[in-house]
Hints:
With 338 residues, the protein is an alpha+beta fold. It contains 10 helices and 14 strands. The chain has helices spanning 44-52, 82-87, 93-106, 136-143, 152-164, 196-201, 241-248, 268-285, 293-296, 312-325; strands spanning 25-26, 55-61, 66-71, 77-81, 110-114, 121-125, 131-135, 168-173, 181-186, 191-195, 218-227, 230-238, 256-265, 306-307.
Amino acid sequence: MMLPTVSPMPAEHPSTPAALFPDYVRLSRSASPTYAPFDGKVPAKWRKAARKKGFTIVDRVKDRLHVALLCHDCGCTHAKRVSVVLGHSPECPHCIKHQRIEHARTVGAVLLGRDPKNRHYGFYQLSCGHRVRRQYHRVARAADGGHSLGCETCREERYRAQANKFGWDLLGPASRGKPGYRSYRHTCGQTQDIMVGNMVWGDCACSGCSLGRTARPSHIYIFRIDLPGRPVLKLGYSARPAKRLRHQLGIDKGITTEVLRVVNLPTGHDARAEEERAHRTLTAQFPDMVVAKAEYGDAINVTREIYRPKAAPLIRRLLDEIETRFPDTGERFPDIAA
């Protein structure tokens, strides 16, 4: 049996080669497919259920479990299981396709095809000319004004232009994978990860040639803080560890404190990167060593980076590894007696 002809679909972009997307599947502009008829009557309650949900049952097709539905909205037909018609809210695939095409047009894009590996994704050509893979619901939200439909290629080109203004070249994703950061190369040849928001304003210093704060020597430290009944350790970095301990952590003067160890690093950039690496290791591998803010409250003016005393051997081992990576740091900037 040949089902009624489907209304023509909006045209695709005329110059879309499938080679651009290995998994690209073109939108169909053909009429309804031909289904083998199934000999059997359509019960009245099936027709009634279909009408309530915006469809007319044309006939039974394929097997005893399927019927051909005519959509009252678009006039197109498709096959659907009887159980869906009776117990659920059937959706017209042609209406969905029309809607997705219109969503794309609203944001200045063209729906090129669907992703056969994931039914929630489609391929689009944006107004800038670049082709992207997007979730249908995100395009729908963009069409409703929920957000913009950005282009990763244009975004990275914009980041590159911003960096060039300040003597940097964008290399790619951050070397440590941190969100919001990118890897850049300075005109002096130094490469480092910098927050994109800082690069927009040129608020960044080259750790290789700049005299800025992050380019100056710094330190990673371990403090012991003997809070009443709850001694703890603090791991952090600072250009002046003693000042950090005595004047910046808000610790009561009656609390006994001690600098257990200081590792010198060539730059503040290196110190911050190594300190963050150490914290990631401790929190991921030894979460029971982490002291929650609720346990020490306002006794220390930080929200994290506090550990239990029994973590000391673990932290010392991490600092040993840092010294191995920076063997020439020596004892150049002792601040613990300042």
